[in-house]
UniProtKB/TrEMBL annotation:
Protein name: Chromosomal replication initiator protein DnaA
GO cellular component terms, semicolon-separated: cytoplasm; plasma membrane
Organism, scientific name: Novosphingobium piscinae
Lineage: Bacteria, Pseudomonadati, Pseudomonadota, Alphaproteobacteria, Sphingomonadales
Pfam family, one: Bac_DnaA_C
Region span, Domain I, interacts with DnaA modulators: 1-94
Length: 481
């Protein structure tokens, strides 16, 4: 039990540290180098925390550039962490040895005679990609694919059902009717999950299949490295020997003419051989500025499947699906509803918020409640609240209480007018960053002390009057949806 709590504690700290680094470094650098980091064990005696990356290249790169920053962040988060050790995950080294040991086993679908055949060295592309040898050698799972990111764990709704169905078709045993498949979605909506799921399902249907999976940025790095080392022939031959090619974040290939040309030739070669291709990006192919027209044509010639932001029904389903992992921890329905309504920017933040809330509750022995969620998820909640204007608040309140909009600025003091005006002032203070004097000016030039009185009065009424509290909750839901 203590070990589980320690792991949850580390995971919660890493979530905070990772989010902070994303803000400091930017989305591109964070996705490429920080996101692939996996937490290892923490030795309390030496104060050493292990952080693992998938390849020697990425481990060395992160150690050279981010070791001091990671060490400082962990020391701030946990004073007992004195050393941070960055290395390759031991299982990756074992898998590499296994691939070399099985290199003489040529894939059955190559159509070549059996027997020992010399194989080129695995193409090391770092990050989440697969080399030419990483295709379930000796029954081992493909390295680079997250085992938790499968179709079974992907929750579908109206926003993503087309993309999910298309992804399943791409991975099926029978040849798909379209190729390439282009997944378009904003950050955190599930396109990377689908890429991993395609890889797992493809290997189930084609146990000896050869998969290549990387980011466009990683493709660029390895292309330049091969160019400088005069290894372009090897680079091309290995790249075009795969049965399934998957490239994530294709928008990062913008402006790189030589790499675009090589990717174009690779796409043509694989399509001519009936191979399968999947690309993912945060925008449609036509919106990729700086990309050659011929490449844009190839990217959009198959099926472009759009993943829309998850609606509230899908967000509820995702939270309920995730809760199964935390049984028997109880999460009240009002907390699920609150998270589903409030954390609406992307699914990754939604799941991260639930993980953090449950981890905090388990580690402190508290029960999960709406108050605890509001206290512990302040940063996530504030980032997800859309910008609401005072004009919008006034309009919504007037419609709710059936009063004329002009009453918000009038001098009338009838109770039927005063109370809605006070509620609107309270909501303006809660939902906007405006100061008391600024709010007062929007309500007919009233003094800031009038606004302060209204805010305190409504706060007090919410604790004593169930009807008033219900009215405010209803208005909050209407304004935040």
């Amino acid at each position: 039990m203590m070990e589980d709590q320690e792991a949850l504690d580390l995971a919660a700290d890493w979530s905070d540290i990772s989010q902070g680094l994303r803000k400091d470094l930017g989305q591109q650098l964070h996705s490429q180098w920080i996101k692939p980091i996996q937490l290892g064990s923490f030795c309390k005696e030496t104060g050493t925390l292990d952080l693992f990356l998938p390849t020697e290249f990425s481990a060395n790169w992160v150690a050279d550039r981010f070791a001091d920053r990671l060490s400082l962040a962990w020391k701030i988060a946990r004073s007992e962490v004195r050393h941070v050790r960055i290395s390759v995950h031991p299982s990756r080294r074992q898998s590499a040895d296994l691939r070399l040991a099985g290199a003489s086993r040529r894939p059955a679908n190559d159509g070549a005679p059996s027997g020992p055949i010399p194989q080129p060295a695995p193409l090391n592309l770092g990050g989440n990609e697969l080399s030419s040898g990483e295709f379930s050698v000796l029954g081992q799972p493909a390295v680079g694919l997250d085992p938790s990111l499968t179709f079974a764990s992907f929750v579908t709704g109206s926003a993503n059902v087309l993309a999910c169905n298309a992804a399943q078709r791409m991975a099926a045993a029978e040849k798909p009717q379209f190729s390439p498949l282009y997944l378009k979605a904003a950050t955190g909506q599930g396109k990377t999950h689908l890429l991993h799921a395609i890889g797992h399902a493809f290997l189930q249907a084609h146990p000896r299949g050869r998969i290549f999976y990387c980011s466009a940025e990683r493709f660029m790095v390895e292309f330049v490295q091969a160019l400088r080392q005069n290894q372009m022939i090897e680079f091309k031959s290995r790249l075009r020997g795969f049965d399934l090619l998957m490239v994530d974040d294709i928008q990062f290939i913008i402006g790189k003419a030589s790499a675009q040309e090589e990717l174009l030739y690779t796409i043509d070669a694989l399509l001519n051989e009936g191979k399968r291709l999947v690309f993912a990006a945060d925008r449609a192919p036509q919106a990729l500025d700086g990309v050659e027209q011929r490449l844009l044509s190839r990217l959009s010639m198959g099926l472009v499947a759009d993943i829309q932001p998850a609606d509230i029904e899908l967000r509820r389903k995702i939270l309920e699906h995730r809760l199964a992992r935390f049984a028997p921890t109880a999460v009240p329905d009002d907390v699920i509803e609150f998270l589903a309504r409030t954390i609406n920017r992307n699914v990754r933040e939604l799941v991260g918020g639930l993980n953090k809330l449950i981890a905090y509750a388990q580690l402190t022995g508290q029960s999960v409640s709406l108050q605890l969620a509001e206290e512990q998820l302040t940063d996530i909640l504030s980032a997800n609240r859309r910008r609401i204007t005072i004009d919008e608040i006034q309009r919504t309140v007037c419609q709710f209480y059936r009063v004329d909009r002009t009453e918000m600025a009038s001098k009338r003091r009838a109770r039927a007018v005063v109370r809605p005006r006070q509620v609107a002032m309270y909501l303006a203070k809660v939902l906007t960053p405006r100061s008391y004097p600024e709010i007062g000016r929007k309500f007919g030039g009233r003094d800031h002390s009038t606004v302060i009185h209204a805010v305190r009065l409504i706060e007090d009424l919410r604790t004593r009057d169930a009807d008033m509290d219900g009215d405010v909750r209803t208005l909050l839901r209407q304004l935040e949806d």
